[in-house]
Each structure stands twice: as C-alpha cells, then as structure tokens.
Write a structure and sequence with these properties.
Layout (H helix, E strand, L loop, with lengths): L1 H34 L9 E6 L5 E5 L5 E2 L5 H9 L9 E3 L2 H9 L13 E3 H9 L4 H11 L5 H18 L19 E2 L1 H11 L3 H7 L3 E7 L5 E7 L11 E9 L3 E10 L2 E10 L2 H17 L1
Antiparallel strand pairs: 1-2, 1-11, 3-6, 4-5, 7-8, 9-10, 10-11
Helix pairs in contact: 2-5, 2-6, 2-7, 3-5, 4-5, 4-8, 5-6
Amino acid sequence: MKNGIKGIRRVSAVAVTAGAVLTAGAFTAPAQAATLKTPTIAAKGGYVMNNGTGKSLFTKAADTRRSTGSTTKIMTARVVLAQPNLNLDSKVTVQKAYSDYIVDNDWASSARLIVGDKVTVRQLLYGLMLPSGCDAAYALADKFGSGSTRDARVKSFIGKMNSTAKSLGLTNTHFDSFDGIGKGANYSTPRDLTKLASNAMKYSTFRTVVKTKSTKQKVTTKSGGYRYMSWTNTNALLGSYSGALGVKTGSGPEAKYCLVFAATRGGKTVIGTVLASSSVENRTADAKKLMDYGFKK
C-alpha cells in the first residue's frame, strides 16, 4: 500500500506541475500577443505578405485601386526580362524623343541619358530602377515594343504590360504608360503590386538591380568615346534597413508617395507595398513598420 500511495502522490505532483505550466501559459500568451500591435501607417493603402508562402501578414485597403506612380516601372522591367532570347548587353541608341519626353513632363524623373549615346539594355534597367528614369523607360518600351513607328512600339509595349498583369492574375491593375505618368488609367493595388514584385524578384537581374544602392556605368558616346553615368537608388531602405532587398519608389500628384519593398531576415522574406503615403519620409517609415511587423508574425 505504501508504494501505491507514493505512486498516487507522484501522479498528483505531476498533475499539479502540469497545471502550473498550463496556468502560466494561459497568463503569458495574451501578454505576448499584446506586444504585437497592428501598425498604423500614414499610407492610404498597404499590404505585406510572406514571400515564401504567399500568406497575407497585413492589409489596409489592400484591394483599393490607386495611382501607382513610378512603381509602374516594376512591370516595365518585368516585361523586358521576360523577352525571349533577351540579350542584356545589346545596345540601344538614345533618341532625342526620350530626352524631349523628360522636358515635356513636369513629374518625369530622369536617368540623364544623353542623345546619341549607346547604352546596353542592362544599363537601361539600372537607369530605370535606381534614379527612376522615365527616359530609360521610354527607351526600353521603344526597344521591346513591336511596330514600324515609335508610337506603335510604345503602344505595343504597354499592351505587353497589361497582358502580363492579366497572366499574373492582377485583376485590379491596368497600365496606360510605360513609366507611371499616365492619363488617368494607370492604377493598381497594394496586393497586386506586391504580387507583381514577388514575381519580378524571380529574375536574378531584377534582384541585382533593385538591391543596388548606387552604380557607375560606362557608356559609349556618339563619337565612339565613352563616358560614365552615375545613378543612385531613390529607395532609402537600402543601407538603412537590415536585410533590405529593394524594390521601387513612386510618386506623383495623384499617387502621392509609394513604395514597394522587400527584406530578408533569418531566412524569411517579407514583401509589400504602401500606396499614397504622405511624404518621402513617411513612405519609408511605413515600410519599416510593416516589415518589422511581418517578421514578427
């Protein structure tokens, strides 16, 4: 009987210990959950997902259509990179039309391409994504569109942007320009832009370009000499947020301040978008808040 009583006592002790653990867990779990507050952002729309699983981690008006500004250029690059038999080192001669376009559009940011210079497709991608060059976007649309006139080629290229959006299931996205300076029919959503960026990041050239903080590129001049073009990335996350991978800024009178962003920490990659934030500083702060939140979820 003594042995039996000891056995009962042991069982009781284990039960009490287990109960204490469960009770402790019951008190600590809500405390941990309370520390992970859903962030408040200045942007009117936002979305973050786990890039590995596709799971949504944060939404704010994630499916509301808004003007996208230069985040449009993610699709410009994506269309170029998907071209069959793409030669990134093929050269494109800078046309006067590209520089005239910059002069004619107040909101057009420039890669400062010089008429007559010969630049490679790879260099145009850097000029497109770092300083957000609308002249580089125009050059790429002219190069990779189809048609006998420049207008026809540009129209064809924008058509490719829209057919790519459709093929990727971006049902709330439409483009009417190659750079985001549209005529009122250039829109997307935080969720769609995030999905687009996630797809574009599958291209190694895209990943390399958007992660580059600054670059100095040697281009061939009209006379056969050379000059260096220096471009700095407009994305303030690079160098200021640990694990930042890119992706693209955007702004405009209607778009306000936008940012598509991605970062990797501890083997986990989060990717997301903020649209219509209130300033350059706030779009960066919004992105940092959302990535911090995404890594904890």
